Amino acid sequence: MATPAQWLEGARPRTLPTAISPVLVGTGAAIGAGVVAPGRALLALVVAVSLVIAVNFANDYSDGIRGTDDDRVGPLRLVGSRAAAPAQVKRAALIGFGVAAVAGLALVVLSGQWWLIAVGAVCIAGAWFYTGGKRPYGYAGLGEVAVFVFFGPVAVLGTVVTQSGAPSPIAIVATVGVGLLTCAVLVANNLRDIPTDAMTGKRTLAVALGDADTRKLYAGLMLVPFVLTIGAGTRSWPLLLALLAGPVAIAPVRRVLRGADGRKLIKVLQETTLALLTWSFLTAVGLALSGWF
């Protein structure tokens, strides 16, 4: 029987910036459009956080029963470490999906954006089949594509439309930055796991590219959002505030390009999520202020 501390670690709370960031940016865009809706923003946050926790448990369950997590560097895997029974972890994932569905339905009712019910269903299916099912797309090198779509355009624009309606062009540009930085988190994770993933047949994009090219991909994913910030800043100068996140992003990029591996990449993961959260917060402030300038 897993302890409460092990369940908390299994939920992987350090990944929560990937849930918080798109909601920050989407809410900032809504404020910039002249709409302040704290209740809807909170519901969007509940949806995002619940989905991330659910997908963490779902991945723990699916990878665990396949044996992918039997010898893995990084956070505790409940199933792989035998700390919890697979059925218990699966139940935790389903509870997370249920909470997200209920909060999402409440958000749809308040906003009147009924078409988002279909989007929510796709999000839950995408979260489960990332490593679940007979042919998980996370095992076929498509994880980064899904992360970009779901954590970038879907999460950010979903937050915007449920608060203020149609997004502005600069808000759409910001979705790309969030998506790319979230992809960088996944790439850093998969870079660390190349040896074990290759042995267990989990063909992630990192396994397909190899160590050297994966490091270059990571650096590119971290750089492009700042280029987008400069471009968007020519339209609305408050968005240039996000450049202040540059120093936070430099450290993990240096570590990766200098060959950090194994447990050293755990620190890179932490620094990458911090860079994502910092860039997103500053971009959200910039978007909120853009309505005044």
Give me the secondary-structure topology:
Layout: H1 4-10, H2 17-32, H3 38-66, H4 86-111, H5 116-129, H6 143-161, H7 169-192, H8 194-200, H9 205-209, H10 211-233, H11 246-257, H12 264-290
Helix pairs in contact: 2-3, 2-6, 2-7, 2-12, 3-4, 3-5, 4-5, 5-6, 6-7, 7-10, 7-12, 10-11, 11-12
Amino-to-carboxy terminus distance: 56 Å
- What's the total count of β strands? 0
Helix content: over 70%
Largest sheet, strands/sense/barrel: none
Main structural class: mainly alpha
Structure description:
Its main location: membrane. Pfam families: UbiA. Pathway: Quinol/quinone metabolism; menaquinone biosynthesis; menaquinol from 1,4-dihydroxy-2-naphthoate: step 1/2. It catalyses: an all-trans-polyprenyl diphosphate + 1,4-dihydroxy-2-naphthoate + H(+) = a 2-demethylmenaquinol + CO2 + diphosphate. Helices cover 71% and strands 0% of the residues. It has 12 helices and no strands. The longest helix has 29 residues, at 38-66. With 293 residues, the chain is mainly alpha-helical. Helix 4 packs antiparallel against helix 5 and helix 10 packs antiparallel against helix 11. The mean pLDDT is 93. The termini are far apart. It has helices spanning 4-10, 17-32, 38-66, 86-111, 116-129, 143-161, 169-192, 194-200, 205-209, 211-233, 246-257, 264-290.
